Amino acid sequence: MVGLCSLLLCCSLLAIHPVAAAVDDGEDDPEWVSKLWSGSIQHYPNTAEAEELLDKFMIECPGQMRKEEIGESLEHRKIFAYVLTKKDTPAGVVKPRLMVTSLMHSREPGGLAVSLYAIGRLCEDYKKGTDPRTVYLLDTREIWIVPIVNPDGYKVVEDPTMRDVRKNRRDTCPMNPVKSGVDLNRNFGYKWSGQYRKCSEEYAGEGPFSEPETQALKRMVEERDFKIALNFHSYGTMLTYPFNHANTDKSTLPTDDEAVFKELAEVFGFDRYGPAHKLLGYTASGESDDWFYGAMGIISMSPEIGSESGGFYSPVEEIPGIVHRNYRRIRHALHKTGLELRRVTCSPGSSAGMMKMTLKNGGVGAGFGSHAAVAVGGCGPSPVTGKIAQIARRSDTDFEVQCPAENMAPGESHKICIVEEIPASVTPAICRCAVTSMGGETSKRAEWATPLEDDTCRAAVRSLTDPNTEILVSSGVAVEDGTTSGLPALPSVTVASHRFGLSPEWQRSWLLLFSEGAMQQWVIVAGVVVGVACLWLFIYTLWCAGAQKLLLQQTNANAANQVEPHS
User: Fold this and answer.
1) Measured between alpha carbons, how far is 78 from 213 in angstroms, rounded to an integer?
2) Which residues, in sequence order, are CB contacts of 174 under 8 Å at separation 6+?
3) Is the dihedral of CA 555, 558, 559, 563 positive or negative?
4) 462 with 428: CB under 8 angstroms?
5) CA angle, corner 363, sides to 359 and 368, nearest 5?
6) What CA–CA distance (Å, rounded) separates 371 from 387?
7) What is the number of other CB atoms lying within 10 angstroms of the CB of residue 258?
8) Where are the membrane-spanning stretches (predicted)?
9) Main-chain dihedrals φ then ψ at residue 548, nearest 5 degrees
10) Residue 566 CA from chain centroid, whole number
């Protein structure tokens, strides 16, 4: 029994925290990735080397990637945004958008490495089809990445004697070329201040948006609806967000937006997060995050990547971890721009035989289409199906289904699957499911499944495409009876699942979680991957009391670290 519990412990921890194991392990990375830490600028790629990689990605992924010129620098170098999404989206369909920028400060090439890695991985993973989450994200969302905001400054740092150049190349300090220029991250138009001298590293320019580089970003943002922005800087392993001009340690944000920033900071794995004054002891007027958020309503933040000891040019051994870790942050932010299924609960309905289901959207955008289809299991011989209206930003949606009383008792599991309405050219290949019981709550992350191999998902897809399917609205509206759960009934426990790997040819990894009664603490029971099959071990917590204690400690310690903890 001890041996079995040890196997359970090891396999379960690997299943729940795959990002915690060997973050710097690049065995699965393609060959081009090594160019991110074998370049000409203290191991980082210079402009020509970066452009060579970007041109490679453009050739290899014509159906998912395009290049848009958004402006020119002071010295007339072009500034490009690389847009990744499924190209054949119907006209008039607007997908939720994420913006990523790097090299606003030319001596911070870590952000460039992250941008290049993200572009390459999203492009290749979509093209290969081996990562269903990437396929879903690029089918239903759009990411704009500006790898080199300050091309003039980055060209200058190719000279080893000019590696400390931070600003653009406006001639403001003739006696000291390294200190010449305008700090682009003080040149934005929200609470801009002209207090800095021209040779200061924070010189903000003659006025807000005086520089062509910031004008380019301004135009790009004003012409499009971005939900979230990540502006990568170095260094210090912290996350800054608005309002950076404020001379206070207290938050000045609306409560709900503050909650979004904190959620992202904790999921990203940052111990230190907040506005500049709180983290650094000084304010930053005219800063990009303040304008993106304060003027444009974008949830905008700046990950400061790389260790304190590594400085602006992190040593080569740290670069793989930096790019892997921040790629996961980018993908999570991209997901959060749209519908992010955070919670599913069920409770007694408004009358006998009715069960109320509640869905929570934790994303900062609504669903992709105007409706979503829902299938509920555990209430009869066939799925209970219907449609719900688009779930608004960070809100709950309630609906009711008919369910016999014997299927609404505590401990009875109900599988609920949601499929978003997708425009005609995008296949609804991702069905998100969770399992709940009366009075219970699922884990925060929903299961990823496929309608091709899941009965409940198939029912949801059918109801989505059937114009005669009834629309589920607020509590009290009955729909057709029935469904099958798809999971074995388990006595006196609540079950939730989180599933990756979505078709018969893809390797599967399942994670099953148990909790007792009130679901206040999760206990990992089992999840062992064997080739393309998944072996389930159901073991009562009484049998593995010692393993349960260790697992609870590990789960609580890592609750906020859904993405690998920072360096």
Assistant:
1) 10
2) 180
3) negative
4) no
5) 85
6) 7
7) 15
8) 522-543
9) -60, -45
10) 16
Per-residue DSSP letter, 26? -
pLDDT in tens, 458-495: 888 888 777 777 776 543 222 222 222 222 222 222 22
**Residues whose CB falls within 8 Å of the CB of residue 12, separated by 6 or more in sequence, listed in order:** 511, 524, 525, 526, 527, 551
Q: Greater confidence, 374 or 168?
A: 168
| Chain centre to alpha carbon of residue 94 | 19
Residue 98 sits at φ, ψ, to 5 deg, of: -115, 140
Q: For residue range 160-185, what is the model confidence (pLDDT) as tens digits?
A: 999 999 999 999 999 999 999 999 99
Can you count the helices (H) and strands (E) in the chain? Answer: 12, 22
β strands within 2-135, DSSP E: 65-72, 78-84, 97-101
Are the C-beta atoms of 64 and 84 separated by less than 8 Å? yes
For residue 447, the model assigns a pLDDT of 66
Tally Cβ neighbours within 10 Å of residue 556.
11
Q: Dig out the tokens for 388 from the structure.
A: 């719900």
- pLDDT (0 to 100) of residue 418: 86
As given in the structure block, the two tokens for residue 357 are 């289901």
Neighbours of 370 (CB within 10 A): 11
d(CA 233, CA 89): 33
- At 451 the pLDDT is 67
The whole-model pTM stands at 0.78
The pLDDT tens digits for 220-244 are 999 999 999 999 999 999 999 999 9
Domains in the chain and their CATH numbers?
Answer: 1-23+504-567 (no CATH), 38-336 (3.40.630.10), 341-492 (2.60.40)
Residue 453 in tokens: 């191999």
Residues with active-site annotation: 304
Q: Is the peptide bond before 293 cis (omega within 30 degrees of 0)?
A: no
94 burial level (CB within 10 Å; 0-12, 13-18, 19+)? exposed
d(C-alpha 567, C-alpha 42), whole Å? 20
Q: Is the Cα dihedral 555, 556, 557, 562 positive or negative?
A: positive
